[in-house]
Amino acid sequence: MNSEVKKIEDFGYNAFFEFNRKKLKLDGFSVARVIAEYKGAYKVKNPTSEYLAKITGKQMFSALSREDYPAVGDWVAITELDAERAVIHGVLPRRTMIKRKYSNKNETQIIATNIDVAFVIESVDRDYSLNRFERYFAIAKDGGVKPAIILNKIDLISEEELDSKLAQIKNRFNDIDVVPTSTITNEGLDELKKHISGRKTYCFLGSSGVGKSSLINKLLGENIIKIEDISLRTGKGKHTTTSREMYFLENGGIVIDNPGMREVGMTDTSIGIDNLFEEITTLAKKCRYVDCAHINEHGCEVLSLLKSGKLDEDKYSNYINLKKEAEYYEMTELEKREKDRQFGKFIKTAKKQLKEYKH
Prior knowledge:
Layout: H1 15-23, E1 30-38, E2 41-45, E3 50-55, H2 57-62, E4 75-80, E5 85-91, E6 97-101, E7 108-113, E8 117-123, H3 130-142, E9 146-152, H4 159-172, E10 178-180, H5 189-194, E11 201-205, H6 212-220, E12 227-230, E13 237-239, E14 245-248, E15 254-257, H7 270-276, H8 278-284, H9 301-308, H10 313-358
Parallel strand pairs: 3-5, 8-9, 8-11, 9-10, 11-15
Antiparallel strand pairs: 1-2, 1-4, 2-3, 4-5, 6-7, 12-13, 14-15
């Protein structure tokens, strides 16, 4: 870590967080940033020190969901107990947030908060998928985060194959920055460094084995994140860390490493999907029916463009699938809230009846 980092602003703090700290009347406490999350505890950092911190029982009691707990990237109000321990009294409002749906569960997992750019990393071998890029872009844009692409392990393919993949990416995502890299030959690493600015926070997202941790180690200039030897079966390095953690680069940039994600489930990301597929959503406004599903309706402008060949078939298919996932999540969330409301009414009635019975 850069030994010259001494100001709270160097950790990403700005006027937005200071305004909200005062608004919530938390300005009587110190502030620190959550740089790692463990089971029941957090590592927080400010210019003074790093602390192992826990939230108060009051916060646990008042929390309604996982989103009410601190996450990596959050700014928190703390009281230092000693040189190594602290108590978290509150989480400052988040400027941006990346979250996803847990696999096979209707629950949300916060990946990271207060992110400026999400680097979505895919390797050029078996992991490569344009549809998977779109999934990550949807959850990033929904949380107000700018996405960018790192196409890693380019040493594994020829220049012709690389040019072909870059052309595919540019054709599908013409407004997204793309950085081809290799940690073996160091190609693209200088270009990647140019995309990282001081006091800005960058989240590295991707499947296990795409080289997220290796890239961060290269940016740090030392092997801080432990990587296991290359697997002979898969040809991939295995990341031994299972928790998210924040690192500080020499140029002042802030990066967050994440465990590999097998799936990227959609939460209530309709806004992110609409922003990502702006071409389709703009066209959808011209459809004959307001509630057009763009599947088989007569007078659908989206289907018309698809039939003409002007709309990429894979892009259309991925749009429909992501919208269905997001709608299903929203529907089940409403059902869950209705069950909670009904249960609350049941408890209230039961208490009233018990009171009457006692009298």
